[in-house]
Amino acid sequence: MTADTKDAVILCSGGIDSTTALAAANKQGYGLYCLSFAYGQRHGIELEAARRVAQAFSCKQHLVMDIDMGSIGGSALTDTIAVPKGRSQAQLSQGIPVTYVPARNTIFLSFALAWAEVLGIIDIFIGVNAVDYSGYPDCRPEYLSAFETMANLATKAGVEGKKITLHAPLIHLTKAQIIQKGIALGVDYGMTHSCYDPAPDGRACGGCDSCILRKKGFHEAGVQDPTRYAGR
Fold it and tell me: DSSP 3-state helix, strand, coil percentages of the chain (rounded to 5)?
């Protein structure tokens, strides 16, 4: 990174939120270093979406880290636990679902922090939001604030006065508002993937929490849903 440019590390899952956060960083003029994870998730097809997104935004580098969270288990996304289907909006807002992956954002952000230090980057973007989400504790503003504080205490860059900033540009937006923001930024959501339990051919199940929130978001945003759902 030169004095005339600014770069950022972006966590990129290939979904709506991370893609919109990436587009927001791009709009702000950041050079984009995308970071994705093959972490043992059953929806590994998301990595294909992440690669499409990184290519579409001409990212400077797209790094895919291979970490085996499946050995830990404890989540419907990495273990043999069934992915819940057809939950109501009331159910979505109650408790922490079995699709929560233990400490996932902390692990992902730690890798992003390490890579940012190596690259000499002080800005990290994550696409979490605390409005239309499925109850994950690591998507809350207080969590992000605590992680940023830790990052500046625990790194060479931080203690040398190079303040590391964790950006969450979608944190207070609904899924519909996120989609509207992305459309305004030129995002093609047809290249994204959200489903927790996709069919072998990549079509979304249509009934998991993530599919429900995705459908709801497009409907409320007044935008046609480009998703390929199973049974269609």
Answer: 40, 10, 50
Residue 15 has which token pair? 């979904």
Distance CA(181)–CA(114), nearest Å, equals: 29
CB 163 within 8 A of CB 189: no
pLDDT reported for residue 91: 86
**What pTM was estimated for this model as a whole?**
0.95
Sheet holding 31-38, edge to edge: 61-66, 31-38, 7-11, 123-125, 165-167
Nearest to 149 by CA among 128, 86, 141: 141
For the ranges 3-7, 19-23, 41-45, the maximum mean pLDDT occurs at 19-23
User: Residue 92: pLDDT above 50?
Assistant: yes
Query: Of 108, 112, 132, whose CA–CA distance to 123 is shortest?
Result: 112
DSSP codes of every residue in 83-113: PP-S--HHHHTSS--TTPPTTHHHHHHHHHH
The token pair at 149 is 């504080």
Domain 7-221 indexed as CATH 3.40.50.720 = no
- In angstroms, the CA 189 to CA 228 distance is 11
**Residue ranges of domains in the chain:** 7-221
